[in-house]
Amino acid sequence: MDYFPLFCRLQGRRCLLVGAGDVAERKARLLLAAGADLWVGATDFSPVFRHWAQQQAVTLLHGPFEPHWLTDCWLVVAATSDNAVNQQVADAAEKQQIFCNLVDAPQQASAIMPSVIDRSPLMVAVSSGGRAPVLARLLREKLEAMLPQHLGKLAQRAGTLRDRVKTQFASLNGRRHFWERFFNSERLAQTLANGDEDRAAQITETLLSADPAVRGEVALVGAGPGDAGLLTLKGLQLIQQADVIVYDRLVSDAILNLVRRDAERIFVGKRAGYHCVPQEEINQLLCEQAQRGKRVVRLKGGDPFIFGRGGEELEALAQRQIPFSVVPGITAASGCAAYSGIPLTHRDHAQSVRLITGHLQKTGSLEWQTLAAEQQTLVFYMGLTQAAEIQQQLITHGMRRDMPVALVENGTSPRQRVVSGTLGELEALAAQVASPSLMIIGSVVALRDTLRWF
Questions:
Q1: Among the options 27, 248, 294, 300, which is catalytic?
Q2: Of the residues 21, 52, 59, 370, which has the maximum number of CB atoms within 10 A of its CB?
Q3: Does 142 participate in catalysis according to the annotation?
Protein backbone atom coordinates (compact mmCIF):
# COMPACT_ATOMS: atom_id res chain seq x y z
CA MET A 1 0.00 0.00 0.00
CA ASP A 2 1.25 3.46 -0.88
CA TYR A 3 -0.91 4.92 1.90
CA PHE A 4 -2.26 3.32 5.07
CA PRO A 5 -6.03 3.98 5.33
CA LEU A 6 -6.81 5.45 8.73
CA PHE A 7 -9.85 7.22 10.17
CA CYS A 8 -8.89 9.95 12.65
CA ARG A 9 -10.96 11.58 15.38
CA LEU A 10 -10.54 15.33 14.93
CA GLN A 11 -13.27 16.67 17.23
CA GLY A 12 -11.82 19.58 19.20
CA ARG A 13 -8.33 19.01 17.80
CA ARG A 14 -6.51 21.88 16.12
CA CYS A 15 -6.06 21.54 12.36
CA LEU A 16 -4.39 24.10 10.12
CA LEU A 17 -5.61 24.98 6.64
CA VAL A 18 -3.25 27.20 4.62
CA GLY A 19 -5.16 28.89 1.81
CA ALA A 20 -8.62 30.40 1.55
CA GLY A 21 -9.77 29.89 -2.03
CA ASP A 22 -12.29 27.51 -3.60
CA VAL A 23 -10.18 24.37 -3.07
CA ALA A 24 -9.45 25.36 0.52
CA GLU A 25 -13.17 25.92 1.08
CA ARG A 26 -13.93 22.31 0.09
CA LYS A 27 -11.24 21.04 2.46
CA ALA A 28 -12.56 23.29 5.22
CA ARG A 29 -16.09 21.88 4.92
CA LEU A 30 -14.76 18.35 5.43
CA LEU A 31 -12.69 19.34 8.46
CA LEU A 32 -15.57 21.27 10.01
CA ALA A 33 -17.91 18.32 9.45
CA ALA A 34 -15.39 16.23 11.41
CA GLY A 35 -15.55 18.71 14.31
CA ALA A 36 -12.01 20.01 13.95
CA ASP A 37 -10.80 23.17 15.70
CA LEU A 38 -9.96 24.77 12.37
CA TRP A 39 -7.37 27.52 11.96
CA VAL A 40 -7.07 29.05 8.50
CA GLY A 41 -4.04 31.03 7.35
CA ALA A 42 -3.97 33.18 4.19
CA THR A 43 -3.14 36.63 2.87
CA ASP A 44 -6.75 37.10 1.75
CA PHE A 45 -10.02 35.34 2.63
CA SER A 46 -13.12 34.59 0.60
CA PRO A 47 -16.51 35.74 1.95
CA VAL A 48 -17.29 32.20 3.12
CA PHE A 49 -14.26 32.12 5.41
CA ARG A 50 -15.03 35.58 6.79
CA HIS A 51 -18.60 34.43 7.47
CA TRP A 52 -17.34 31.31 9.27
CA ALA A 53 -15.02 33.49 11.34
CA GLN A 54 -17.91 35.74 12.38
CA GLN A 55 -19.76 32.61 13.51
CA GLN A 56 -16.62 31.55 15.42
CA ALA A 57 -16.49 28.33 13.41
CA VAL A 58 -12.88 29.01 12.32
CA THR A 59 -9.91 31.07 13.50
CA LEU A 60 -8.25 33.23 10.85
CA LEU A 61 -4.50 33.84 10.62
CA HIS A 62 -3.70 36.82 8.37
CA GLY A 63 -0.49 36.97 6.35
CA PRO A 64 2.00 34.67 4.64
CA PHE A 65 2.63 31.23 6.10
CA GLU A 66 4.65 31.08 9.31
CA PRO A 67 6.00 27.77 10.71
CA HIS A 68 4.76 28.67 14.21
CA TRP A 69 1.19 28.28 12.86
CA LEU A 70 1.82 24.54 13.18
CA THR A 71 2.03 24.68 16.99
CA ASP A 72 -0.35 22.17 18.61
CA CYS A 73 -1.71 21.03 15.23
CA TRP A 74 -2.75 17.43 14.55
CA LEU A 75 -3.21 17.81 10.80
CA VAL A 76 -2.19 20.36 8.18
CA VAL A 77 -3.69 21.02 4.75
CA ALA A 78 -1.76 23.10 2.22
CA ALA A 79 -4.34 24.40 -0.27
CA THR A 80 -3.01 27.63 -1.76
CA SER A 81 -2.68 28.34 -5.49
CA ASP A 82 1.09 28.69 -5.07
CA ASN A 83 2.95 25.36 -5.28
CA ALA A 84 6.02 26.85 -3.62
CA VAL A 85 4.00 27.92 -0.58
CA ASN A 86 2.31 24.53 -0.42
CA GLN A 87 5.69 22.84 -0.45
CA GLN A 88 6.95 25.20 2.26
CA VAL A 89 4.01 24.17 4.45
CA ALA A 90 4.63 20.48 3.74
CA ASP A 91 8.34 20.78 4.58
CA ALA A 92 7.59 22.55 7.86
CA ALA A 93 5.01 19.92 8.80
CA GLU A 94 7.47 17.14 7.99
CA LYS A 95 10.04 18.62 10.36
CA GLN A 96 7.48 18.64 13.18
CA GLN A 97 6.19 15.15 12.31
CA ILE A 98 2.70 16.39 11.49
CA PHE A 99 0.74 14.76 8.68
CA CYS A 100 0.14 17.14 5.78
CA ASN A 101 -2.33 16.98 2.91
CA LEU A 102 -0.90 18.72 -0.16
CA VAL A 103 -3.35 19.75 -2.88
CA ASP A 104 -2.34 19.34 -6.53
CA ALA A 105 0.66 17.24 -5.44
CA PRO A 106 -0.91 14.34 -3.54
CA GLN A 107 1.91 11.92 -4.30
CA GLN A 108 4.26 14.17 -2.33
CA ALA A 109 1.86 14.46 0.60
CA SER A 110 2.13 12.50 3.82
CA ALA A 111 -1.68 12.33 4.07
CA ILE A 112 -4.52 12.17 1.54
CA MET A 113 -8.14 13.22 1.88
CA PRO A 114 -10.15 10.51 0.13
CA SER A 115 -13.55 10.68 -1.49
CA VAL A 116 -16.04 9.99 1.31
CA ILE A 117 -19.42 8.26 1.44
CA ASP A 118 -21.00 9.41 4.68
CA ARG A 119 -23.51 7.11 6.36
CA SER A 120 -22.45 8.15 9.85
CA PRO A 121 -21.38 6.36 11.92
CA LEU A 122 -20.60 4.21 8.89
CA MET A 123 -17.98 5.85 6.69
CA VAL A 124 -16.58 4.62 3.39
CA ALA A 125 -13.51 6.26 1.88
CA VAL A 126 -12.08 5.81 -1.61
CA SER A 127 -8.60 6.90 -2.66
CA SER A 128 -6.43 6.35 -5.71
CA GLY A 129 -3.34 7.65 -3.92
CA GLY A 130 -3.62 10.83 -5.96
CA ARG A 131 -3.00 9.03 -9.24
CA ALA A 132 -6.57 8.93 -10.59
CA PRO A 133 -8.86 11.29 -8.66
CA VAL A 134 -11.57 11.13 -11.33
CA LEU A 135 -11.69 7.33 -10.96
CA ALA A 136 -12.01 7.70 -7.19
CA ARG A 137 -14.87 10.16 -7.71
CA LEU A 138 -16.66 7.82 -10.11
CA LEU A 139 -16.36 4.96 -7.62
CA ARG A 140 -17.71 7.19 -4.88
CA GLU A 141 -20.72 8.04 -7.04
CA LYS A 142 -21.39 4.33 -7.66
CA LEU A 143 -21.11 3.55 -3.96
CA GLU A 144 -23.38 6.46 -3.07
CA ALA A 145 -26.05 4.91 -5.30
CA MET A 146 -25.50 1.41 -3.92
CA LEU A 147 -25.47 2.15 -0.18
CA PRO A 148 -28.90 3.07 1.21
CA GLN A 149 -29.23 6.03 3.54
CA HIS A 150 -30.57 3.89 6.42
CA LEU A 151 -27.21 2.11 6.83
CA GLY A 152 -26.18 4.80 9.29
CA LYS A 153 -29.24 4.06 11.44
CA LEU A 154 -28.44 0.34 11.27
CA ALA A 155 -24.86 0.95 12.38
CA GLN A 156 -26.06 3.27 15.14
CA ARG A 157 -28.45 0.62 16.48
CA ALA A 158 -25.71 -2.01 16.34
CA GLY A 159 -23.53 0.23 18.50
CA THR A 160 -26.17 0.27 21.24
CA LEU A 161 -26.31 -3.56 21.25
CA ARG A 162 -22.63 -4.46 21.46
CA ASP A 163 -22.40 -4.96 25.21
CA ARG A 164 -25.64 -6.92 25.32
CA VAL A 165 -24.62 -9.18 22.44
CA LYS A 166 -21.24 -9.81 24.03
CA THR A 167 -22.95 -10.88 27.25
CA GLN A 168 -25.69 -12.93 25.62
CA PHE A 169 -23.53 -14.84 23.13
CA ALA A 170 -20.53 -16.35 24.88
CA SER A 171 -18.68 -17.60 21.80
CA LEU A 172 -17.13 -15.53 19.05
CA ASN A 173 -18.94 -17.63 16.45
CA GLY A 174 -22.28 -17.03 18.16
CA ARG A 175 -21.73 -13.28 18.17
CA ARG A 176 -20.60 -13.25 14.56
CA HIS A 177 -23.62 -15.22 13.41
CA PHE A 178 -25.97 -12.92 15.32
CA TRP A 179 -24.47 -9.84 13.68
CA GLU A 180 -24.77 -11.41 10.26
CA ARG A 181 -28.47 -12.11 10.90
CA PHE A 182 -28.85 -8.57 12.20
CA PHE A 183 -27.24 -6.84 9.22
CA ASN A 184 -28.84 -9.17 6.66
CA SER A 185 -32.37 -8.67 8.02
CA GLU A 186 -34.33 -7.01 5.24
CA ARG A 187 -37.28 -6.44 7.61
CA LEU A 188 -35.10 -4.51 10.03
CA ALA A 189 -33.49 -2.49 7.25
CA GLN A 190 -36.85 -1.53 5.74
CA THR A 191 -38.30 -0.64 9.13
CA LEU A 192 -35.39 1.68 9.89
CA ALA A 193 -35.68 3.21 6.43
CA ASN A 194 -39.35 3.93 7.24
CA GLY A 195 -38.35 5.57 10.53
CA ASP A 196 -40.40 3.13 12.61
CA GLU A 197 -38.20 2.86 15.69
CA ASP A 198 -40.73 0.87 17.75
CA ARG A 199 -41.09 -1.81 15.12
CA ALA A 200 -37.32 -1.90 14.64
CA ALA A 201 -36.90 -2.53 18.37
CA GLN A 202 -39.34 -5.47 18.18
CA ILE A 203 -37.47 -7.03 15.26
CA THR A 204 -34.19 -6.59 17.08
CA GLU A 205 -35.57 -8.41 20.13
CA THR A 206 -36.73 -11.27 17.90
CA LEU A 207 -33.24 -11.60 16.44
CA LEU A 208 -31.70 -11.57 19.91
CA SER A 209 -34.04 -14.28 21.18
CA ALA A 210 -33.40 -16.63 18.23
CA ASP A 211 -31.75 -19.98 18.94
CA PRO A 212 -28.04 -19.20 19.32
CA ALA A 213 -27.00 -22.76 18.52
CA VAL A 214 -24.67 -22.83 15.56
CA ARG A 215 -24.37 -25.92 13.44
CA GLY A 216 -21.17 -26.42 11.56
CA GLU A 217 -21.12 -26.92 7.81
CA VAL A 218 -18.67 -27.24 4.96
CA ALA A 219 -18.78 -25.54 1.58
CA LEU A 220 -16.62 -26.96 -1.17
CA VAL A 221 -15.68 -23.95 -3.29
CA GLY A 222 -13.87 -23.94 -6.61
CA ALA A 223 -11.45 -21.00 -6.71
CA GLY A 224 -10.88 -21.20 -10.46
CA PRO A 225 -7.52 -21.41 -12.20
CA GLY A 226 -5.91 -18.29 -10.72
CA ASP A 227 -7.43 -15.00 -11.84
CA ALA A 228 -9.48 -13.67 -8.90
CA GLY A 229 -11.95 -12.22 -11.38
CA LEU A 230 -12.98 -15.75 -12.34
CA LEU A 231 -14.18 -16.58 -8.82
CA THR A 232 -17.96 -16.94 -8.78
CA LEU A 233 -20.10 -14.48 -6.86
CA LYS A 234 -21.43 -17.25 -4.61
CA GLY A 235 -17.89 -18.47 -3.97
CA LEU A 236 -16.87 -14.95 -2.94
CA GLN A 237 -19.81 -14.66 -0.56
CA LEU A 238 -18.98 -17.97 1.12
CA ILE A 239 -15.28 -17.29 1.65
CA GLN A 240 -16.15 -13.93 3.21
CA GLN A 241 -18.54 -15.64 5.63
CA ALA A 242 -16.31 -18.58 6.56
CA ASP A 243 -14.82 -19.11 10.00
CA VAL A 244 -12.17 -21.47 8.61
CA ILE A 245 -10.57 -21.66 5.16
CA VAL A 246 -8.84 -24.92 4.22
CA TYR A 247 -6.85 -24.28 1.05
CA ASP A 248 -4.13 -25.79 -1.10
CA ARG A 249 -1.22 -24.52 -3.17
CA LEU A 250 -3.22 -23.92 -6.34
CA VAL A 251 -5.34 -21.21 -4.71
CA SER A 252 -3.84 -17.89 -5.80
CA ASP A 253 -2.82 -15.10 -3.43
CA ALA A 254 -5.33 -12.85 -5.18
CA ILE A 255 -8.13 -15.19 -4.09
CA LEU A 256 -6.80 -15.50 -0.54
CA ASN A 257 -6.73 -11.72 -0.24
CA LEU A 258 -10.54 -11.83 -0.52
CA VAL A 259 -10.89 -14.03 2.57
CA ARG A 260 -12.25 -12.38 5.71
CA ARG A 261 -9.27 -11.16 7.74
CA ASP A 262 -10.20 -12.86 10.99
CA ALA A 263 -10.94 -16.24 9.42
CA GLU A 264 -8.59 -19.06 10.36
CA ARG A 265 -6.53 -20.24 7.38
CA ILE A 266 -5.28 -23.81 7.21
CA PHE A 267 -2.84 -24.71 4.44
CA VAL A 268 -2.98 -28.30 3.21
CA GLY A 269 -0.76 -27.65 0.21
CA LYS A 270 -0.61 -30.09 -2.63
CA ARG A 271 1.59 -30.24 -5.64
CA ALA A 272 2.44 -32.90 -8.15
CA GLY A 273 3.97 -35.89 -6.37
CA TYR A 274 3.78 -34.35 -2.89
CA HIS A 275 1.00 -33.81 -0.34
CA CYS A 276 2.12 -32.11 2.86
CA VAL A 277 -1.19 -33.26 4.39
CA PRO A 278 -2.53 -36.70 3.31
CA GLN A 279 -6.05 -36.75 1.91
CA GLU A 280 -7.35 -38.79 4.86
CA GLU A 281 -6.13 -36.10 7.26
CA ILE A 282 -7.77 -33.38 5.18
CA ASN A 283 -11.07 -35.28 5.35
CA GLN A 284 -10.72 -35.58 9.12
CA LEU A 285 -9.79 -31.91 9.47
CA LEU A 286 -12.93 -30.78 7.64
CA CYS A 287 -15.10 -32.99 9.83
CA GLU A 288 -13.49 -31.82 13.07
CA GLN A 289 -13.80 -28.12 12.23
CA ALA A 290 -17.47 -28.48 11.25
CA GLN A 291 -18.23 -30.50 14.38
CA ARG A 292 -16.95 -27.55 16.43
CA GLY A 293 -19.73 -25.43 14.95
CA LYS A 294 -17.48 -23.70 12.41
CA ARG A 295 -18.48 -22.64 8.91
CA VAL A 296 -15.74 -24.19 6.84
CA VAL A 297 -14.82 -23.47 3.25
CA ARG A 298 -12.68 -26.04 1.49
CA LEU A 299 -11.11 -23.85 -1.15
CA LYS A 300 -9.69 -25.69 -4.16
CA GLY A 301 -8.01 -24.45 -7.30
CA GLY A 302 -10.09 -24.93 -10.44
CA ASP A 303 -13.25 -26.98 -9.96
CA PRO A 304 -13.46 -29.31 -6.93
CA PHE A 305 -15.17 -32.08 -8.92
CA ILE A 306 -12.60 -32.24 -11.72
CA PHE A 307 -9.48 -34.04 -10.48
CA GLY A 308 -9.86 -32.21 -7.17
CA ARG A 309 -10.89 -35.12 -4.93
CA GLY A 310 -13.95 -33.14 -3.93
CA GLY A 311 -16.12 -36.23 -4.07
CA GLU A 312 -13.89 -38.05 -1.58
CA GLU A 313 -14.10 -35.19 0.88
CA LEU A 314 -17.87 -34.96 0.63
CA GLU A 315 -18.19 -38.71 1.19
CA ALA A 316 -16.37 -38.30 4.49
CA LEU A 317 -18.72 -35.47 5.49
CA ALA A 318 -21.80 -37.42 4.46
CA GLN A 319 -20.74 -40.39 6.57
CA ARG A 320 -20.73 -38.11 9.63
CA GLN A 321 -23.96 -36.36 8.59
CA ILE A 322 -22.27 -32.98 8.35
CA PRO A 323 -24.14 -30.48 6.13
CA PHE A 324 -22.27 -29.49 2.99
CA SER A 325 -22.69 -27.61 -0.26
CA VAL A 326 -20.70 -27.24 -3.45
CA VAL A 327 -19.88 -24.14 -5.48
CA PRO A 328 -18.32 -25.13 -8.80
CA GLY A 329 -15.38 -23.20 -10.16
CA ILE A 330 -13.95 -22.62 -13.60
CA THR A 331 -11.77 -25.63 -14.24
CA ALA A 332 -8.21 -25.20 -15.46
CA ALA A 333 -9.04 -26.68 -18.88
CA SER A 334 -11.60 -23.98 -19.60
CA GLY A 335 -9.76 -21.08 -17.98
CA CYS A 336 -6.28 -21.82 -19.30
CA ALA A 337 -7.52 -22.56 -22.80
CA ALA A 338 -9.56 -19.36 -22.95
CA TYR A 339 -6.69 -17.20 -21.65
CA SER A 340 -4.37 -18.84 -24.18
CA GLY A 341 -6.61 -18.19 -27.17
CA ILE A 342 -7.30 -21.91 -27.68
CA PRO A 343 -10.97 -22.89 -28.14
CA LEU A 344 -11.48 -26.40 -26.77
CA THR A 345 -14.06 -27.13 -29.47
CA HIS A 346 -14.39 -25.84 -33.02
CA ARG A 347 -16.54 -27.04 -35.93
CA ASP A 348 -13.50 -27.46 -38.17
CA HIS A 349 -11.17 -28.99 -35.59
CA ALA A 350 -12.77 -30.70 -32.58
CA GLN A 351 -16.25 -31.95 -31.76
CA SER A 352 -15.35 -33.30 -28.31
CA VAL A 353 -13.03 -32.63 -25.38
CA ARG A 354 -11.34 -35.22 -23.17
CA LEU A 355 -10.11 -34.21 -19.71
CA ILE A 356 -7.45 -36.65 -18.48
CA THR A 357 -5.34 -36.86 -15.33
CA GLY A 358 -1.65 -37.13 -15.95
CA HIS A 359 -1.17 -39.44 -12.94
CA LEU A 360 -1.00 -42.40 -15.33
CA GLN A 361 0.77 -44.75 -12.97
CA LYS A 362 -2.10 -44.42 -10.46
CA THR A 363 -5.04 -44.64 -12.80
CA GLY A 364 -4.20 -47.73 -14.77
CA SER A 365 -4.10 -48.08 -18.54
CA LEU A 366 -5.77 -45.40 -20.66
CA GLU A 367 -7.63 -46.09 -23.90
CA TRP A 368 -4.82 -44.68 -26.00
CA GLN A 369 -6.40 -45.77 -29.27
CA THR A 370 -9.47 -43.67 -28.48
CA LEU A 371 -7.39 -40.73 -27.28
CA ALA A 372 -5.37 -40.72 -30.49
CA ALA A 373 -8.47 -40.28 -32.67
CA GLU A 374 -8.96 -37.19 -34.83
CA GLN A 375 -11.41 -34.30 -34.30
CA GLN A 376 -11.05 -34.01 -30.55
CA THR A 377 -9.08 -31.99 -27.98
CA LEU A 378 -7.11 -33.65 -25.21
CA VAL A 379 -6.40 -31.79 -21.97
CA PHE A 380 -4.01 -33.43 -19.52
CA TYR A 381 -4.00 -32.24 -15.92
CA MET A 382 -0.79 -32.82 -13.93
CA GLY A 383 0.89 -34.36 -16.95
CA LEU A 384 4.37 -32.83 -16.94
CA THR A 385 6.15 -35.79 -15.38
CA GLN A 386 4.41 -38.16 -17.81
CA ALA A 387 5.03 -36.10 -20.96
CA ALA A 388 7.35 -38.69 -22.51
CA GLU A 389 4.83 -41.49 -21.92
CA ILE A 390 1.95 -39.41 -23.31
CA GLN A 391 3.98 -38.51 -26.40
CA GLN A 392 5.04 -42.10 -27.06
CA GLN A 393 1.60 -43.64 -26.52
CA LEU A 394 -0.28 -41.16 -28.68
CA ILE A 395 2.19 -41.50 -31.58
CA THR A 396 2.25 -45.29 -31.24
CA HIS A 397 -1.55 -45.39 -31.47
CA GLY A 398 -1.75 -43.28 -34.59
CA MET A 399 -1.71 -39.59 -33.71
CA ARG A 400 0.46 -37.63 -36.11
CA ARG A 401 3.75 -36.27 -34.80
CA ASP A 402 2.99 -32.75 -36.06
CA MET A 403 -0.23 -32.46 -34.02
CA PRO A 404 -0.15 -29.03 -32.33
CA VAL A 405 0.34 -28.99 -28.56
CA ALA A 406 0.51 -26.24 -25.94
CA LEU A 407 1.61 -26.22 -22.34
CA VAL A 408 0.11 -23.44 -20.19
CA GLU A 409 2.04 -22.54 -17.05
CA ASN A 410 0.31 -20.52 -14.30
CA GLY A 411 -2.73 -20.11 -16.51
CA THR A 412 -4.95 -16.98 -16.19
CA SER A 413 -2.47 -15.31 -13.82
CA PRO A 414 -0.18 -12.37 -14.68
CA ARG A 415 2.63 -14.98 -14.74
CA GLN A 416 0.95 -17.07 -17.43
CA ARG A 417 3.37 -18.53 -19.98
CA VAL A 418 2.43 -20.66 -22.98
CA VAL A 419 4.91 -22.94 -24.74
CA SER A 420 3.67 -24.46 -27.98
CA GLY A 421 4.97 -26.89 -30.56
CA THR A 422 4.11 -30.35 -31.90
CA LEU A 423 3.43 -33.72 -30.35
CA GLY A 424 6.83 -34.93 -31.50
CA GLU A 425 8.41 -32.20 -29.32
CA LEU A 426 6.20 -32.72 -26.27
CA GLU A 427 8.84 -34.22 -23.96
CA ALA A 428 11.26 -31.39 -24.72
CA LEU A 429 8.53 -28.77 -24.31
CA ALA A 430 7.55 -30.16 -20.90
CA ALA A 431 11.11 -29.64 -19.70
CA GLN A 432 10.70 -25.90 -20.37
CA VAL A 433 7.77 -25.30 -18.01
CA ALA A 434 7.08 -25.72 -14.32
CA SER A 435 4.09 -26.88 -12.32
CA PRO A 436 1.25 -26.00 -12.29
CA SER A 437 0.91 -26.46 -16.02
CA LEU A 438 -1.81 -27.76 -18.28
CA MET A 439 -1.22 -29.73 -21.47
CA ILE A 440 -3.51 -29.18 -24.47
CA ILE A 441 -3.22 -31.43 -27.54
CA GLY A 442 -5.24 -31.05 -30.73
CA SER A 443 -5.53 -29.09 -33.93
CA VAL A 444 -7.39 -26.31 -32.09
CA VAL A 445 -4.02 -25.27 -30.67
CA ALA A 446 -3.12 -23.97 -34.15
CA LEU A 447 -5.76 -21.25 -33.71
CA ARG A 448 -3.78 -19.68 -30.90
CA ASP A 449 -1.71 -17.45 -33.20
CA THR A 450 -4.92 -15.80 -34.40
CA LEU A 451 -7.02 -15.84 -31.22
CA ARG A 452 -4.49 -15.08 -28.47
CA TRP A 453 -5.54 -12.03 -26.51
CA PHE A 454 -4.20 -12.29 -22.95
A1: 248
A2: 52
A3: no
